[in-house]
Amino acid sequence: MTTVPIAMIAGIGAAVPAGVLTNADLERTLDTSDEWIIERTGIRERHIAGPSETLNSFTLVAAQRAMARAGVTASDLDGIIFATVTPDHRLPSAACELQAMLGAERAWAFDVVAACPGWLFGLSIADGLMRASLGDTILVVGAEKLSSITDYEDRSTAVLFGDGAGAAVVKRATGDGRGLLATYMGSDGNLAPLLHIPGGGSAEPLTASLLSEKKHFVKMAGREVFKAAVLAMSRSTDAAIGRAGLTPDAIDLLIPHQANLRIIEATAKHAGISMDKVMVNLERYGNTSSASIPLALQQAEEEGRLKSGMVAMLVSFGAGFTWASVVVRW
Ligand code: UT7
């Protein structure tokens, strides 16, 4: 990849459901404690959709905010790439449903299933499609309703996940140096059983017994995933910085996947980036999978931590396993 950007993020938007589940709430129903959750993860609360809120009800808000920020309307969109593991329906895609809600009639639309790094996979795909002249204005969404696949009786996962949506309008770079400087993606399907949903797919369709065995909920071997996440996020960071032709000191802000503060600290340490240059907001949102990085990116911009011309390093890891990184000049 050259360091002359082809694609740029022209506007970013985020939205979360209003409902908040605090560590104190979880203490009331689970054998856990606020102290354990903060010490082991850094999370204090997470947003959870109410019974009438669908994934696309809050994703629509994030998309509209991104489009307003970029100054584009629905008819400007050439395409929609929607990264999610929790679409409102198995069929059709969340992207097609969002296309209809937006009235983006010219846009092609499809989903990407790459778990937590899904939004970064989406950015890489948008960049590639732009290079192939298959679009000039692409909406890239990362959004999850993880509460729909979380077992709130399993303390090893219930304390981690939250709901949220982020979206970016990706446009052709303007030639002033701003845009995606490098992208990197990787996968290892051999490790799939460490973080997966065992039932409810076509291999084992939903049945009453499957539901009673809770096979439709996410299962995770936390400790093993933790180690793999640190390794893959560290390697991804090195790879994208190398592809961008930069050194770590050129990174103004590291925006890592918000799964665990200890993973974030280890990734930053490996990259030689001090914690004052790292965006952390997991204390408010928990792990929102594909929404995690756009939520943090939007907040970084809003708080003035990411200004025009600054270089941000985005890196993520998740089920699959999958990992990805993107270096962007804002
Ligand atoms: O987003 C995709 C990628 N996902 C991740 O990156 C998540 C990676 N994993 C993690 O973040 C951490 O492994 C967890 C936060 C999930 C768990 O932290 P840990 O330090 O690895 O804990 P552990 O699984 O090794 O468990 C330590 C102890 C166990 O008890 P014993 O066996 O030592 O008696 C667990 O049963 O902590 C216990 N435990 C809890 N205790 C209180 C597990 N969950 C809880 C809980 N509250 N919620």
Question: Could you explain the architecture of this structure?
Answer:
The chain has 330 residues and is of the alpha/beta class. It has 2 domains: 7-176, Peroxisomal Thiolase, Chain A, domain 1 (3-Layer(aba) Sandwich); 180-329, Thiolase/Chalcone synthase (Peroxisomal Thiolase, Chain A, domain 1). It has 11 helices and 13 strands. The protein has helices spanning 23-29, 34-40, 55-70, 94-102, 118-131, 155-158, 208-212, 222-243, 261-271, 282-285, 292-302, and strands at residues 7-15, 20-22, 45-47, 79-83, 108-112, 137-145, 163-172, 179-187, 195-196, 219-220, 253-256, 311-318, 322-329. The strands form 4 sheets. It has a 5-stranded mixed sheet, with helices on both faces. It has a 4-stranded mixed sheet with strand order 8-13-12-11, sandwiched between helices. Helix 3 (55-70) packs across helix 4 (94-102) and helix 8 (222-243) runs parallel beside helix 9. The chain is globular, with a radius of gyration of 19 Å. Oxa(dethia)-CoA is lined by residues 32, 36-37, 40-41, 116, 155-156, 159, 222-223, 225-226, 229, 259-260, 263, 287, 317-318.
Itemize the secondary structure elements and their pairings.
Elements: E1 7-15, E2 20-22, H1 23-29, H2 34-40, E3 45-47, H3 55-70, E4 79-83, H4 94-102, E5 108-112, H5 118-131, E6 137-145, H6 155-158, E7 163-172, E8 179-187, E9 195-196, H7 208-212, E10 219-220, H8 222-243, E11 253-256, H9 261-271, H10 282-285, H11 292-302, E12 311-318, E13 322-329
Parallel strand pairs: 4-5, 4-6, 11-12
Antiparallel strand pairs: 1-7, 2-3, 6-7, 8-13, 9-10, 12-13
The site of oxa(dethia)-CoA (UT7) has 20 residues, from helix 2, helix 6, helix 8 and strand 12.
